[in-house]
Give the backbone structure.
Amino acid sequence: MEKQMSSIKQILVALDGSQSSISALESGVKLAVRLNAELVGLFVEDINLLRATQLPFTQEISMFSSGYRRLEALELERQLRVQADRVRRIMERITHAKNLSARFQVVRGSVAEEILIASKDADLLMLGKTGRSLPGFGRFGSTVRSVVVRRPGMTLVWHLDGAAIRPVVLAYDGSESAGKGLLVAFSLQESQDSGLIVYLVAESQEKGHELRLEVSNKLKELGGCATFRTLVRPDFANLTWMLRSENAGPIVLPCNQKRVSGEHLCSLLEEITNPVLLVK
């Protein structure tokens, strides 16, 4: 079991300067220390923003006045450099406090595409749920949607409120991805010094009992324990409602089922405020 725990060798955190991405970084640092994993920070200079400066009608609206001005390419590049340098210094401060060595890299391109390319070598990708455009408005937009739908492996979508110490929730159905999720859920609750709640997603009460024994034995090997709840054949609406009803922290969700794939997956991410770890 300990050998399986060490399968996460590299954690990539996508950083854009937003508070949710910085919160993701703080959690990623704790997890990297716990797993003895390499931490990589990624800042993407959005090529689409730079291309927009070539359009004659592109203007920048000030947040502090009612005025606006033409958005110039040189000024935008300066803003991107300033933002990247700010993120780099924040990452250095957080990792230094934990005595953790890390890498920070800056690339230019389409944000979603560059994150997907960079995360090919990562065992875990972490990114903030709400991004930040240059004017500073946060939103759950196309970048996060594209990444979570297209990326295989493990992706942790972090919400700002995820910094609070609350129990980690795992949806467990006995699949291979659920098994991987259990290991990471245990590591998350260890790094946060919180509890673990396991939702047993089963076809019947009898199968739920089997899953409970299975998870209990695995946690015993790790020296952990959990609180259990059983969900028998939940549909998407019921699953979402149950997850929202918990006063919990991160939710670990295997994505090998129709109920948590595609648009259902994006809907769940929009409806709940918890950080969500997707395991494929």
